[in-house]
Amino acid sequence: MKAKIEKLKERYVGAKTRQEFDAIERELRALCDNDAPAVADATLESIRDTNAELLRVKLNDVLPDGALLDISGRMGASTASVF
After folding, report:
1. How many angstroms separate the Cα of 53 from the Cα of each of 47, 62, 81, 83?
2. Separation CA 71–CA 56 (nearest Å)
3. Does the pTM of the predicted model rise above 0.90?
4. What's the whole-number average pLDDT of the chain?
5. How open is the CA angle 45-20-53, to the nearest 5 degrees?
6. What is the domain range of residue 39?
7. Of 1, 5, 4, nearest to 47 (Cα)?
8. In this structure, are residues 2 and 40 in contact, taking their beta carbons and an 8 Å threshold?
9. DSSP-H helix ranges across 1-83
10. Rounded Cα gap, residues 2 and 9, in angstroms
């Protein structure tokens, strides 16, 4: 389900016309009609992934090179799992 949500998100970001947005909305509604809890879980996971990536980008902008690796090393975790 997450792959379907990610694909819809990519299409939404690239959509230019009302027809494209409407088609995406129809597909999302159909997914919700079939399995709303799975859509909600996949959407939440996608949001968390996006937020983690945005945080990584922002931190890379303000921290010196290698600081994230140093922080994750001190925590005994991979950089990805820190966020």
Report:
1. 10, 15, 12, 8
2. 12
3. no
4. 85
5. 30
6. 2-82
7. 5
8. no
9. 2-14, 18-62, 67-75, 79-82
10. 10
Given a contact cutoff of 8 angstroms between Cβ atoms, the answer to whether 1 and 41 are in contact is yes
Alpha-carbon torsion 60, 65, 71, 77, what sign? positive
Q: Match 């001190």 to its residue by tokens.
A: 74
Q: Is the pLDDT of residue 23 over 90?
A: yes
CA distance 83 to 80: 6
d(CA 24, CA 18): 10
pLDDT tens track for 27-57 = 999 999 999 999 999 999 999 999 998 988 8
Token couple for 40: 């909600």
Residue 51's φ and ψ, nearest 5 degrees, are -60, -40
Q: How many domains does one find in the chain?
A: 1
| Confidence label for 74 from pLDDT (cuts 50, 70 and 90) | low
